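Posting this for the archive.
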Amino acid sequence: MSSKTGLAPFIHTEKNVPYIYLTIIVALVPCIAYAVFYYGIRAIILILFSAVCFTLSDYTFSLISHRLNKNDYFDLSSITSGLIFSLMLPPDTPLIVALSGVLFGSVVIKQFFGGAGCAIVNPAAGASLFVRMMFPSDMLGYSSGSGGFFDMGSLFALHSGTSAVPDYSTISFAELVSGNYPGNLGQACAAVALLGAAFIVIRGNLRLYAPCSYLLALTVLYLIFGQAKEYLVFILSSGVVFVAFFLLGDLTTMPSRFLAGVFSGVVCAALTIVLYFHIDHQIAILAPVVAVNLMSFVIDFFAKTISRRKKTSREVDVL
């Protein structure tokens, strides 16, 4: 009788890389639906354009660098990064500006460091920060959906039209919750972001250490250093809820340990509050995320060291 022995590991689970990214894509559907409902066809074009270009860029660079072979599988990370990036853009962002961000996120941030699973910075966060710093005048297109469902002229312009960012303090609580005000495509409505985050949590693909500590620290610090009466406006309109769950919840660029995740969330919140009252609000939110991504390996290392020392100490006490 013959028997066949396979190679380890022998653990089988449905939660492979494509499954995890597919879960995130499904979780983004409420944000995408909100963007299309409020901004019409220009939202559809901008979202699809970013996702397709990100995918093509990753695939092309992988072919050029000879990292792609017949045994590779499509992990959906490119589509996920493209979707998240697009949802953090103003609705009037020209396609040429979106393409610049996609290429920076795909080639410089992701592919230069080895491709999927190797980036030290979240590609969507890095791409968003890049376009806001390099094209500040094109990040002011916050017109509402009043131009009609088929209004898409701003997408093909060389420069975005400038629309005054609304005074969020004058918007009613119901409008803030529902996202019924001009803002980024899918980042403005905190309710749909929470709905998507709840789906990821239910599917077991989100570590809550960093997102929850981030939002909790933001709450405490804003109430201390900001104006308490504007706290709800800040939380609901700034896009920090979206950032908390879809950027700080990233499994690749954020620390994996509980202590490290909590520390990262608190540091990110502290940096956000320091910057928020002095520079562009979206840059103040994105820059700390990128900074924490860059520090995540070091933070995880120290958290692991502390955990080992505690374990060793307990073993000595028992002896």
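The chain has one domain: 17-318. Confidence is low (pLDDT under 50) at residues 1-11, 313-319.
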